[in-house]
Amino acid sequence: MHKPAQLYLASKSPRRRELLTQRGLNFEVLLNPFDDVSEEPLANEEPIDYVTRVAAEKALSVDSYIQTAGMTRLPVLASDTIVELDGEILRKPADKVDAFKTLKKLSGKTHRVISSVAVIDKNRKLLQDTSISQVQFRELSADEIQEYIATEEPMDKAGAYAIQGGAAKFVKSFNGSYSGIVGLPKLVTFSLLQNCGITLLG
Would 2 be classed as within a structural domain? Predict the structure, then answer.
């Protein structure tokens, strides 16, 4: 028997879906409502302010859609993740040339991965928390970067890499939330969901 959804997920990321499924959560994915949320940084906006704002706007956009459509009232979960290097936001690459430039910048350096999670509870109250992790890359050769780009994996990833994928071999060390680097910090997310009354398995 199919269990009813416990929440609405505002995310296109299969990685986020997988992390929620692992904890036995049933959810309905809503994508269209936040397609009009601008992911362009505001003038002089700090990286942490940017990612916090975008995550909140995605959640609020879906919540507004639910109200308008007269859908069942459930908590809404949205998240946004960025890679930040020396104050610069490194988003998903526009093309393979952009991916190469991004990975070249990360080579031999330590960057931050900032993941913000926004949850709107049944009473339409916004709950939010943010996870910040540090990742150090070893020096990367041009051939290594090109070889990785050829797999197409970097093309839909913030910072042009996936720590859980082929870029694992680039990582010298990391400090913080591994799941946050993947795209959804589990400790932060599950704490917010529990505050909404959602029971988790495990």
Answer: no
Number of domains within the chain: 1
Q: Is the pLDDT of residue 202 over 80?
A: no
> With 50 as the cut, is the pLDDT of residue 1 above it?
no
Q: What is the extent of the structural domain holding 181?
A: 7-195
Asked whether 117 and 177 are in contact (CB, 8 A), the reply is no
SS3 of the chain: CCCCCCEEEECCCHHHHHHHHHCCCCEEECCHHHCCCCCCCCCCCCHHHHHHHHHHHHHHHHHHHHHHHCCCCCCEEEEEEEEEECCEEECCCCCHHHHHHHHHHHCCCEEEEEEEEEEECCCCCEEEEEEEEEEEECCCCHHHHHHHHCCCHHHHCHHHCCCCCHHHHHEEEEECCHHHHHCCCHHHHHHHHHHCCCCCCC
121 annotated active-site: no
Give the pTM. 0.92
Per-residue pLDDT reduced to its tens digit, 76-121: 999 999 999 999 999 899 999 999 999 999 999 999 999 999 999 9
In a domain, 155, yes or no: yes
Tokens of residue 183, six digits: 């795209």
Cα–Cα distance for residue pair 57/37, rounded to 1 Å: 7
Catalytic residue among 35, 63, 80, 95: 80
